[in-house]
Design brief:
ethanolamine-phosphate cytidylyltransferase; Rossmann fold; ethanolamine-phosphate cytidylyltransferase activity; elongated; lipid biosynthesis; Ect1/PCYT2; 204 residues; five-stranded parallel beta sheet
Amino acid sequence: FPQGPKGHSPWTGVSQFLQTSQKIIQFASGKEPQSGDTIIYVAGAFDLFHVGHVDFLEKVHQLAEKPYIIAGLHFDQEVNRYKGKNYPIMNIHERTLSVLACRYVSEVVIGAPYAVTADLLDHFRVTLVCHGMTEVVPDKDGSDPYEEPKQRGIFQLVDSGSNLTTDLIVQRIIKNRLEFEARNQKKEAKELAVLEAMRRLEKH
């Protein structure tokens, strides 16, 4: 949001997030997959990590007795390609820490490829790939990013039961912001009218 003609407010500044490896370690579970674990891979932007994401990950977690969930996070540039507008709102580092903080996630792939490749599936020994009920945008070449797991028969759609999306949250923020600005303009007009009346009284 614009900060007004007077430049930066001393109260509402935009802080620059600084990522360190230590910060990631603090958030990471540090758990390695154990024998008998079902390794489940999910991928996405996970932007403005919200209850819709948590509900989805919880449902995925319930698919196996011993789930080990790996979340693939796409780079900012990739998210912007398929989401457009000003997305992502949070950068890759902020999104990484948000997802790592979720109890259902065991590991995060930072800057995961958009297409779920054979190399990725083999490297992490993935037994199941899940996606929510949101639209799957084709890859740059028009191909299905889930083609490989579908061919292997390990792809599954999971309904989180939540209709909350990042888009919806952003719309709510903008609506609240506009209402707040309209309310403040009215308040400011009243205050100016009072000041003007006081000045007139002082003159008399």
